[in-house]
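Database export, one record per block. Field names are fixed; values are copied verbatim from the stored entry.
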Amino acid sequence: MLCHNILGIMVLCVVILITCPGCSDSQDTKTGAEENFRKSDKITVHAPFPAERTFEVLPENIQWETNTTDPVFSSPEAEKGGLFRAALSSFPMTFRVVGPDSNGSFRSAILDNQLSLINIHPNTKKIIPELATHWAFDPDKKTMYFKLDPDARWSDGRPVTGWDFAYTLTFMRSEHIIAPWYNDYYSREIEKVMVYDDYTIGVKSTKAVPDLHLKLGISPIPAHFFHPLQKDFTSEYNWAVVPNTGAYQISEFKKGRYVRFARKHNWWAKDRHYFKNRFNVDTVQYSVIRDFNLQWEYFKKGRLETFGLVQPKYWYDKSRTRVVENGYVHRIWFFNDMPRSSLGMWLNQDKKIFSEKYMRLAFAHAMNIEKVIEKVLRGDYFRLAQPFFGYGEYTDYTISPRQYDIKKVESLMTDQGWKRGDDGIWEKEGRRFSVTVTYGYADHMPRLAVLKEEARRAGIELSLEQLDPSAMFKKFLEKQHDVAWMGWSTSLRPSFWQGWHSDNAHKPQTNNITNTDDPKLDALIDRYRESLDEQERVSLSHAIQNKIHDICAFVPTFMVPYVRIAYWRWLRLPDWHGTRMSQDLFDPFSATVGGLFWLDQDVFHQTLSAMEQDTLLPPETIRDTRFKVVGDAP
């Protein structure tokens, strides 16, 4: 989660603290990421793998497809150059994207610079090229064929070939990466990669599935960098800067302080149809600013380019500040249309207090989410119904979240022999209904404070524990929490196995943080994974969601179907601002929706001059509802 800030100080002080977006303050940017990726400590680039390579025979009569005609979503007005500064609440625990401690929020910045074979157009949702120029579907409905772009290059200049995709399976199946989910997925779901020549491959699923392209458009792993994998992989590569295929590469970092990415000025894909006029800034720097309010102050001083205003107090109150009212900072409220993050409270069923379903139900009915939305969030957020919302026909929209109901809590508890103690908290045989809610951001305290007060009225005691976001997530993955206050990212289709199957329960470093272990749910998830029929998968998806709702190990909280951001006016967006799937209009990296903005140096100098002379500029607040779902938001 990246956030940013503002401060009404003397104009001179503000100007001094602003860094020219057209200037670089590091030699690393000038050398380019193609060279600087070699800065990883003690990492050896290995010989290519394998020595004995044999090509398979490509089937005849393949019907190749491509798509270079869908509308571009970048602006021809975009300019290259400049430094974009963003904030990290905590430094990542590793640069690895697999293995222990790798599943943190910073992981996306690394993965977004690693392209896949194909992608999905963020508005039309049709297949578009990335590392592959063409693709084809086999009649077996399990196999896709791909022609690779012969110009595709790793950061070190080596060509991306079919052997890098073959190595993906070797890498992901290896026990040395200590990543059970990937071991399972690339064994149970991906059967093999066939290499027909250096630039033609096939990827075969273990079974036919609908939307095969969503499954088989895999990313390559640089075989020359990792092979052979050793048992000390997780330590040897903890801070390795791995060659990638995207527009940026980590060029410099200082542990605990910052990570800097440099744009590849000779990036092989810079003139491709869907990449042209994107990924425009020369340098992206993430600095660790642990306190959210301090990030706001940095933003107001011009030391960060953007700041998220999703929280109502920032949109309505705190942005009533000099730099906004004088027109130096603009604001935008942009609605999107996409699957919603599973924001909520995740109950650890391995804790005795939540081992019984009636206790989980009582907890759910003691959470007054509606009051938080009304009183703290000013009605701008909406109640999330369940963890898989917004997936079109794959979502069961008839599921309703449990409502705050003290009488229901009392009925559940008294039926099981619990009584209220002197302080009003439920007690039984020396046990108290007291749990700890662990969270990672100080600005969430007002929400939790309301929940705590309302839960006490219902007889449940909440202790609130704030941790550094990295420490928080580590605690969740180690299954040491009572209640996890968090949300998971989304995909284009519901994915149930990693978060809800017993294969991932009662063990650390998996996403089943509720430790759900239900044979009936397992059977539904297994059938969903194995189904060959899309309508059956839709039906199973609904059944799974109802079973998850019945288990009641997740209390859904909010959904936010929009982006609200403050940004210094020298940042420019296309006239259409973003895409249907834009979660962050100033995302610098994402191949699907990122890199649409640029820095306008003329506007930068104009803004500085206006600030020096205390000249007022027209304030601007944009409200873009083109992708707003009717009835979905205010």
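Remark 1: The chain has three domains: 11-21+248-335+566-624, 35-73+92-236, 344-559.
Remark 2: The longest strand covers residues 190-197.
End of record.
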